Amino acid sequence: MKKVTLRADADLIGQARAVARAHHKTLNAAFREWLQQYAAQSGSAQEVDSLMERLKHVRAGRNFTREEINEQPVVSFLSSADWQRKVKDSAQGEGACAESDLSR
Fold first, then answer.
1. Does a structural domain hold residue 2?
2. SS3 state of residue 78
């Protein structure tokens, strides 16, 4: 593991140590967990950028009205994991996400 030196307000470090202690962790362990989560966000952004690049050829076939663009679709029937799988499958050409898929 590589060592990193950080500078922060002494009171903030004290508060962070107290929170880590309350979770039965060291401040170092809590920071490593945070760093992993922080770095994972970058991967998600890269995945979205990659998906958008792969889908840039997709065209709607017509221009939409302002009302249609601002319409709020109801997709709460799918869990987040199901929705992500459908988007991924669609992007890989394994089948489009049809309207009937959204209303299960």
1. no
2. coil
Q: Which domain holds residue 71?
A: 64-104
Q: Number of C-alpha atoms within 13 angstroms, CB side, residue 40? A: 6
The alpha carbon torsion through 69, 72, 74, 75 (nearest 10 deg) reads 70
Mean pLDDT to the nearest integer, 44-71: 84
DSSP3 helix / strand / coil % (the chain, rounded to 5) = 60, 0, 40
DSSP state of 94: S
With a threshold of 0.90, does the pTM exceed it? no
Q: Cα separation of 69 and 99, whole Å?
A: 17
Query: 83 — phi, psi (to 5°)?
Result: -65, -45
